[in-house]
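thread: overnight batch results

M.L. [08:02]
morning all. the overnight job finished for the chain we discussed friday. pasting input first so we're all looking at the same thing
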Amino acid sequence: MPFHQLKNHLSKIEERSKTFIGYPGAIDFDYSELFPFLRYNLNNVGDPMIDSHVDMHTKNFEREVLAFFAGLFNVPQNNWWGYVTNGGSEGNLYALYLARELYPNAMVYYSEATHYSVQKNIHLLGMTSIVIRSKENGEMDYDDLKQTIQMHRHQPAIILANIGTTMTEAKDDIYAIKSILKAYAIKNYYIHCDAALAGTYLALLQKGSFDFRFGADSIAISGHKFIGSPIPCGIVLVKKSNKDRIGRAVSYIGSFDTTITGSRNAIAPLFLWHAVTKLGKEGLLKRAYHSLELASYTVEKLKSIGVQAWANEYSFTVVFPSPSKEICYRWQLASENGISHLICMPGITKEQIDAFVSDCAKMQDTGFDCELGPISYLLN
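M.L. [08:03]
and the structure it wrote out:
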């Protein structure tokens, strides 16, 4: 067996992790206590609220995780359901699937700053959609939404609201969206919140008006982003009364087929349970404040060397004109349309930010041409 390949790749990952600041993934986690579970073939097949015939699962931990987040997002106490997903994209797919079953002839509205998975999910589900313009900060343009809905007011509306866009971490305003729906007397609508990165800490900070109290019909978050996990994962929460319309019993697993996938990851719920149990709300809040303070520090450090950096309110994401390809590759920055960003996730340090800013100061004269990304840099 070529085990040297594993060793070499691990060494590369260890080295590259030191400059991994461009993508949203917390790195301050330690799940070594859970390693013994990796010896077993575990599977959370079917509905998380129903234990199957086989006991090789972690659904009891999954339910505790879901209850924690249901409370955090103010889902109606006797009318909620959800499951641990493979990530935010699956959560968005499930929410759109549920909305389509409720309103088969609806029009889907989402902004141009929405995550790329949404367009793919809409295509997979065969839904009709319209893209709404975004403002400069990445937030939905409500005037454009208003005009577009007016032209399609005869149809039910499914609206995908971003609670933290990919590039600028902008937050769409659920109150503004609902006001538009009310203005055009649209009674049949569904609002899904893609809160992959920002949802958890905004709820902890009690900032933003996006949860079920304010009109959300479903919320999807990523577990490997703010909380942190070595395996991509997420959570989707919906109203149980809506979910009950699509489930069906499967006798040989002793459960209901209510999720996107049949077999489901049973390790991810353990990671999430470990994090929320060990840290609690106070520990999670402490990490959120650290990241917000680091984002403010980063903006000021970049401005001090003449870089026009900025961040949306209550955001970990710092946005700036794209630096050189060398910097983008070294620091693994996400870039689009001439802008790049870094994300001050839990675990990122001031020392890393200082090193990044120092690199930018040294190479400011190399231009702003990162849009092609690291592959083009390696080929040049």
